[in-house]
């Protein structure tokens, strides 16, 4: 795996691109490195300075967790996980208690022994060099668990759901407390200063229409500044982030969210117009009911990661079934086709479990139809939702969405389609879905340093 930048080699365990503080990719240069990483060998894992955020707890998050632990731990054995909301922390606490009981590694009552502490990071300093207003405080919900074994279950929750705090959240909290974030040590001298950076072009670029090459800017775009690895002045960091478009000031958060939701809605409308001008999926196939009118930003929901959007889609499906069938137990969900691993884990570990049709081909479609018919005849609780990927990750197989939609309409379950690999620019699956989920980590920014889901 090679970095996007030039002039530097990406060593084992370094970020890709190199010197990217919030990178979501890590360098594993050789096939042996990849194999040894999967085997968990110390040779590789001891050299990781970063990693995919749900699998590797960012060094800034580790540092912030140690600060919280030093301030609030009741014993040396206690460990902690950090969450941005009380709801996420309580979901983790319940998951840890349930799994520990099922795995016989803790007795009943563990949920009460997992403590939730509210930690606040604040500062009287201005939030930006161009404003005098102090930065708003950050509330961190710290879940303390009794020991390392239970902490392993909390790590599992973190990985599956993507609901932990982000590295940028941790960085901001550290700065508010007057502590520097952790950065990679430079592997080569780098003397570029702010004065050496090219200024942005004066002439505004024409707004691109979805990657239209003809409308791309004709001037060369400036390369992003490369961090030195040293502890830099906070004002300098803010200047670079805001001047070169890496971050908006925190005061613009609601406007940024609205802009993202509108952009996604616009793309989906262009891909699958609500006026029916797109190719109809089939003469006898009804579109899913989504209310009257054209798709708008109010139909788009943002999540911190792609997996958290899948997690909450599953939670929604189960809640809807409780509302529609209050006198029945919640039914299982279906995973159709071989998915990304954490999707199946979410369906299996939350709620009553899953039916897994791993091949996702015609034989599985026939078996699925038989299962649905038998469940209905025997009075078994109806299926809550069917989850599939289009195409699948990593096998790139595409299920028969027309047939799945027909079965969903016949037996009354939701169809949740993850189109991350194709993404909503390139695949038209909205007519077949009740819920679309997608990892924005793979689509937005272009710098491989943001997380998001929808």
From TrEMBL:
<dbReference type="InterPro" id="IPR015424">
    <property type="entry name" value="PyrdxlP-dep_Trfase"/>
</dbReference>
<dbReference type="Pfam" id="PF01053">
    <property type="entry name" value="Cys_Met_Meta_PP"/>
</dbReference>
<dbReference type="InterPro" id="IPR000277">
    <property type="entry name" value="Cys/Met-Metab_PyrdxlP-dep_enz"/>
</dbReference>
<dbReference type="GO" id="GO:0030170">
    <property type="term" value="F:pyridoxal phosphate binding"/>
</dbReference>
<dbReference type="GO" id="GO:0003962">
    <property type="term" value="F:cystathionine gamma-synthase activity"/>
</dbReference>
<feature type="compositionally biased region" description="Low complexity">
    <location>
        <begin position="272"/>
        <end position="283"/>
    </location>
</feature>
<feature type="region of interest" description="Disordered">
    <location>
        <begin position="271"/>
        <end position="290"/>
    </location>
</feature>
<feature type="region of interest" description="Disordered">
    <location>
        <begin position="185"/>
        <end position="209"/>
    </location>
</feature>
<dbReference type="InterPro" id="IPR051750">
    <property type="entry name" value="Trans-sulfuration_enzymes"/>
</dbReference>
<dbReference type="GO" id="GO:0019346">
    <property type="term" value="P:transsulfuration"/>
</dbReference>
<protein>
    <recommendedName>
        <fullName>Cystathionine gamma-synthase</fullName>
    </recommendedName>
</protein>
<dbReference type="InterPro" id="IPR015421">
    <property type="entry name" value="PyrdxlP-dep_Trfase_major"/>
</dbReference>
<keyword id="KW-0663">Pyridoxal phosphate</keyword>
<comment type="similarity">
    <text>Belongs to the trans-sulfuration enzymes family.</text>
</comment>
